[in-house]
Amino acid sequence: MAVSAGIFSYPNYFNKGVDFLNNKLSWTLPHFPEKPYILGLDLQGGVSLVFQADLSTSTDKNGDMSRLRDLIERRINPQGVYESTIQIQGQDRLLVELPGVTNIQQAIQVIGQTPYLEFNEQRTADETKVITDKMKEVQDADAKKEDITKIKDWEIAIQALQSPAFAYFKPTELTGKYLKIDGTKLNFDQTTYKPIVELQFDDEGAKLFADITSRNIGKPLAIILDGQAIINTESGIYAPIVNDKITGGKAQITGNMTTDEAKKIVDRLKSGALPVKIGAPISQEAVGPTLGSTSLQKSLTAGLYGLIGVVIFMLVFYRVPGLLASISLVIYIAITLSLFKLIPVTLTLAGIAGFLLSMGMALDANILIFARTHEELNLGKSYSVALKDGLKRAWPSIRDGNFTTILVGIILFILGTSFVKGFAFTLVVSNLIGMFTAIVITNYLLKIFLGSKEPKWLWLWR
Q1: Is residue 454 classed exposed, middle or buried when 0-12, 13-18 and 19+ CB atoms within 10 A define those classes?
Q2: Are 442 and 328 in contact (CB under 8 A)?
Q3: Region at 403 (left for phi over 0; alpha for psi -120 to 50; beta for the rest)
Q4: CA 74, CA 89: separation in Å to the nearest integer?
Q5: Do the Cβ atoms of 9 and 341 come closer than 8 Å?
Q6: Residue 271, pLDDT above cutoff 70
Q7: Tell me, what DSSP letter sits at residue 162?
Q8: Across-strand partners of 233?
Q9: Using CA atoms in the order 176, 182, 185, 189, what is the torsion angle rounded to 10 degrees?
Q10: Across residues 148-155, what is the average pLDDT?
């Protein structure tokens, strides 16, 4: 198991040996399967973005943020960025990490392609006048190079300038989060053969749609996608007139659009209509691949020095048991790295730190066993009895020490974000494997010496 795990963790040397034998002896030995490690943003470079969601109209903030995270993840992953990390930060922020992506604008464009769908009802004439007057006031101030932020409610004007429909239509409770993805499809009018986008809402959305249409009979209802009316004409925004209350949760988008435009709308809606709005990222950071490669190399160098240091310490202070513990440590490293590939674990600098920390903790259990066994030998017990009693006395300390570490790791994983989760996960997995190697593998290696002539070698254990 140890040899297989070691080769699986780093198969380069084994496969080079296979190539050498195949060339020299005309054999056809197969290569050992290669599976790459998944590296995080800080190790292979990429883009980190933080978006802030608009939860002002949300009635289920936690649920909407969870749906927002899931839908963006579903949108990003088909692009081939399978190691992407999408996490909720605080109440209304979303962290998006895209390893391997170096173009920030490209990343923002990919995320922005996921639409936010609204069904907006017409404002009153007075409401529209307030907004249009505010727009004119802001435009005049901007033309005079004045500070527009000193104007009261200037944000309303900016929103209206960015989305012309905002001045004439106001949001309703009905948004894309109630949309059934499998009910969104392209169809054609049987008379005119013009394309039609058919929508289907879930049960709650169907009730909202019925309420909205019932109170807007004879009035227009605008369909807004990403802040823009989904259908526009030369004379302005086109909003279909509601002729009667619509039940059943079905709606149609019709108008002057080509088949390709209708297909694009369907595809974008199927990719997931966002439950809440997100604007431009409030924070963005790019990590170059060179910086990531340097960080990885330094981490591996630190790990190598750490391994050499603990092996020297074990050999000097514990002699033969220290040698056996070092063998057990190498096996521990091979098994842990193999699991990181199989699970798979996205390795970050913090995750590697958790793994390197666990290397020392893996030896901690061995040291407890050796110290207890040493005490039993000093009491005059035989090696076999001392080994058995030493393991028995050391186990409560090993159990409690590792249990508390694993417990804290689980709490960090549940409550932490991003790199904290990576550190916590590798710490927990590494601790579990460390307990296994200490209790099973090291103990097995120690039992090899049972039955030997104790006086000839016993001093090496004291």
Answers
A1: middle
A2: yes
A3: alpha
A4: 19
A5: yes
A6: no
A7: H
A8: 236
A9: -100
A10: 84
Read off the pLDDT band of 347 (50, 70, 90).
confident
Strand partners, 258: none
Question: Per the confidence metrics, is the pTM higher than 0.70?
Answer: no
Cβ–Cβ contacts within 10 Å for residue 238, how many?
Answer: 17
Q: Which amino acid is at 216?
A: N
* Long-range pairs, 74-80, Cβ under 8 A, ≥24: 74/271, 74/272, 75/110, 75/111, 75/113, 75/114, 75/271, 75/272, 76/110, 76/111, 79/110
pLDDT at 439: 86
Q: How many residues in total does the chain contain?
A: 462
For 208-255, write each residue's pLDDT tens digit: 999 999 998 888 888 776 666 655 433 345 567 787 888 888 888 776
Do 427 and 405 form a contact (C-beta atoms < 8 A)? yes
Phi, psi of 122 (to 5 degrees): -70, 140
Report CA torsion sign: 338, 343, 344, 345. Answer: negative
**Which domains does the chain show, CATH number per domain?**
2-34 (no CATH), 45-284 (3.30.1360.200), 288-461 (1.20.1640.10)
What does the radius of gyration of the chain's CA atoms come to, in whole angstroms? Answer: 32
Which pLDDT score is estimated for 235?
38
pLDDT for the residue numbered 308: 92
Q: Among residues 427, 295, 303, 307, which one has the least CA distance to residue 349?
A: 295
| DSSP string computed for 247-295 | -SSEEEE-SS--HHHHHHHHHHHHT---SSEE-S-SEEEEE-HHHHHHH
The closest alpha carbon to 41, from 107, 111, 113, 112, belongs to 107
Structure tokens, 459: 């001093």
Return the exposure string of 66-100: e unless at least 16 CB atoms fall within 10 Å of the residue's CB, then b: ebbbebbbebbeeeebebbbbebeeebbbbbbbbb
Q: Is the pLDDT of residue 378 over 70?
A: yes
